Amino acid sequence: MFGHVMEDLTPEEIAAASQLYAPLADRVRELVAATVLTEVPAPDVAKAIQLIEEATALLGTKAVEGSFGVRWTPDGKRRTWGNAIVGLRNPIAPPLDIRQRGDLTYADVVIGPQYEGPPTLVHGGIIAAMLDQVLGDAAVNAGVPGMTGTLRIRYNRGTPLGPIRVQSAVDRVEGVKTFVSGQVIVDDAVTVEAEGIFILPKAVRDLGDNPPPGILAPGD
Amino acid sequence: MFGHVMEDLTPEEIAAASQLYAPLADRVRELVAATVLTEVPAPDVAKAIQLIEEATALLGTKAVEGSFGVRWTPDGKRRTWGNAIVGLRNPIAPPLDIRQRGDLTYADVVIGPQYEGPPTLVHGGIIAAMLDQVLGDAAVNAGVPGMTGTLRIRYNRGTPLGPIRVQSAVDRVEGVKTFVSGQVIVDDAVTVEAEGIFILPKAVRDLGDNPPPGILAPGD
């Protein structure tokens, strides 16, 4: 499939790449927040722009064309490091560090000022984005990965910026459809509820009973 | 309401602030994309981090506490410049430049590699986020601004990274509920459909028949 990239890397090489690019994305996340909040005068903005342009040019001297895609190793280890919600090298992503405990798929994350919608609250769309990812990961964790078919979100009340939990669990599987529900939780209270249906892609169905290693396992 | 900030600025001062901070956010957007795609070796990453940390420190020398909030002028002009989807000074935001033509509310935008989910496709969650905003703006444009109550998204097929249109229109208003539908369009084909119900906040209902100027008008 286009955008899926096979790379023959050792675990050590993957760890080294993570240790190289994850801190870079973290520093850009801090810059993003500072850009939203800054009130410095024009000369300081001009100087900051100069520094940022220099960093961008430097990073661009060797770069992937198009988009990062999803990377695989021959033993089936998947890396979604460019993903907009979970990508460890994507400064747009909070990033969600999605974990699994029993049937529960969840992420604990602190939501910064760059994700604001209504004043002091997390943007409802960003909440939808995180739920889409965490519900989808529940399907992956259950061995039935799918593209989002439908997603329904019910906002009970505003979700303040700061620490939140996003969680999900598979309710049932019917043929190619996996039904998943989830919640956003703040201080033990549910602020948002979601239901999603995820569709097993034809490309995966066509793999039959002997999929390549890792295709049905969680990535990172 | 907390996070709503009144500022007595002239139109010229607002234009100057936009011209100062919007280009900064644009440069950070370019850096975000470069961070996702870069393959430069460790010494270059270290140098880029140094430049980025310097820029962040400089921008932090004078900054808003907490979050940007929503800013108002006494004549009722609203600025949502920190918003995660439309904020002109928020590098997380594409940003959507949401316009109105007749009953249609829409944004034409080019989606870059930092919004990727499945390889080469826009993250389904990011699509949900943009739809939440554009559907909500249709309610605002119809004079019935609301918090998202429910949002339902149907993904017909993947939406490729690149130029897309996100559009919406109000279907009907029932009491405090505004029913809005919308679509994502790529090359004249609908890739995603959405329906939302937006709830007129009690704070606005309490304003009665004489709301302050601008409270029911689109911001920017």
From TrEMBL, chains A, B:
It is an enzyme of class 3 (hydrolase). It comes from the Bacteria. It is found in: Cell projection, Ruffle membrane; Cytoplasm; Membrane. GO terms for cellular component: cytoplasm; membrane. One of its GO terms (molecular function) is hydrolase activity. Transmembrane segments: none annotated. The keyword Transport does not apply. Belongs to the THEM4/THEM5 thioesterase family. This is Acyl-coenzyme A thioesterase THEM4. It comes from Gordonia asplenii.
